[in-house]
Amino acid sequence: MSILIKDVWFKGNKKSVFIEGKHIKTIADEINETADTVIDGKGKGLIPGMINGHGHAAMTLFRGYADDMPLELWLNTKVWPQEAKLTENDVYAGAKLACLEMIKSGTTAFMDMYWFINGTARAVQEMGLRAKLAHVIMDNFDERKREKCIEEVENAYRNFAYQSDLIDFDLAPHALYTVSKELLKWTAEFARKHHLLIQIHGAETETEYNFCVEKYGLSPIRFFDSIGLLNPNFSIAHCVYLDEEEIDLLAKNQVKVVYNVNSNMKLASGLDFKYQLMKEAGVTVCMGTDGCCSSNNLDMFEAAKHAALVQKGLHKNPELLPADHAFDLISKNGGKLFEKNIGQTKEGYLADVCLVDMNTPAFIPKLSYNLISNLIYSANGSCIDTVICNGKIIMQNRKVANEQDILDEAQAAAERLFR
Question: Which secondary-structure segment (H or E) carries 357?
Fold first, then answer.
């Protein structure tokens, strides 16, 4: 399968792009190769697919359900009671809706942690996206639950039928206040043995910070370090409550940090994400939306804009987190989470790319210097016209196969869940 994109706007110039199989073969002024599919790129801009570093895909079913609440109350009185009612089919329907929403807003790869991982995997496989799906690990400090959880994880890993070049199996201990020290240490060892990535919520709230200090005598990042969790295959979502010494620990151990600005603002869990200090220390900072019950949409451009504005306003410095750096958070940096050649549009890289419709008010005037600036500050995900993932067209002219069926199935699942 080959695709030729002709006369597209790329880095300030008109280029053509030849995709062969799963990879970008050539980017040049003119290409004379014969392709199975030819796309007219006039009026379009070429960008890499966006990468969502943290979320809970099937929580699209919870959109608008539990707004304007603090995190602990939100979890205990709203989210967890409803999640207890979920079935694998519910998760499949919600995850498929999430995949549709991500495709429509230019995301081609995402990290996820949620229940019924096979339901999410089935949705991802059908929609043609790239994903790292993490099995939830939680024992609430109960030994019997811990033993049962370990058995479930081992079985899930052994029987996971969706492992492919597009879908990876990860581990997701929920947080240090829901997972015992013993289970966290077991998770670290299991991940090392099987070369798996660990996703976790960490240093997210003041309550969590105080819990960790009172229980273990250590701050969250120092606690993770003390039990051997910090390593290049460890990804921490949120990371609001930490100091410079902890940032150095993250950098030294090549831990990936995922900034979830919309969720942090909406749940009022903390604004002071120390982006500049992390960047200076060499920490890989990526961007996530979190789930739709706490951020309400999966638009990575909106998340990047809010991150840039919050950093500037918080530190009273308009030069902090400029547009091109914000764009890196949702593209290039996210590629490091996957350890694949994605997140950039380069020859030899996997063909995860999007075409932006520049014939919209948000992109006028079309000048050589302002495509990325307008993407971050002016546009939103609705500007995406075409999406290609792994060399396959999954949206063209803003049309995705079976859209209405996906919407109807998610609506029905939500109505059953909240009946």
Answer: strand 353-357
For residue 31, report the phi and psi dihedrals to the nearest 5 degrees. -130, 130
pLDDT tens-digit readout, 260-286: 999 999 999 988 999 999 999 999 999
Residue 8 is which amino acid? V
Partner residues linked to 399 by β-bridges:
396
The burial class, CB within 10 Å (0-12 / 13-18 / 19+), for 218 is middle
Residue closest to 74 by CA, chosen among 310, 269, 214: 269
Taking residues 320-341, report their average pLDDT: 97
Whole-structure pTM value: 0.97
Q: Helix 88-104 to helix 403-417 angle, to the nearest 10 degrees?
A: 140
DSSP letter assigned to residue 49: P
Domains of the chain: 2-48+344-403 (2.30.40.10), 50-338 (3.20.20.140)
pLDDT in tens, 119-168: 999 999 999 999 999 999 999 999 999 999 999 999 999 999 999 999 99
CA nearest neighbour of 82 among 112, 58, 109, 46:
58
Distance of CA 53 to the CA centre of its chain: 3
Mapping DSSP to helix (H, G, I), strand (E, B) and coil, where does residue 368 land?
Answer: coil
Partner residues linked to 202 by β-bridges: 238
Strand partners of residue 23: 20, 350
Residue burial 26-52, b: 16+ Cβ < 10 Å; e: rest: ebeeebeeebeeebebebbbbbbbbbb
- The span from the CA of 377 to the CA of 371, in Å, is 10
Render the burial of 286-311: b for 16+ CB within 10 Å, e for the rest: bbbbbbbbbbbbbbbbbbbbbbbbbb
Cβ count near 361 (within 10 Å) = 7
Nearest Cα neighbor of 376 from 112, 106, 129, 109 is 106
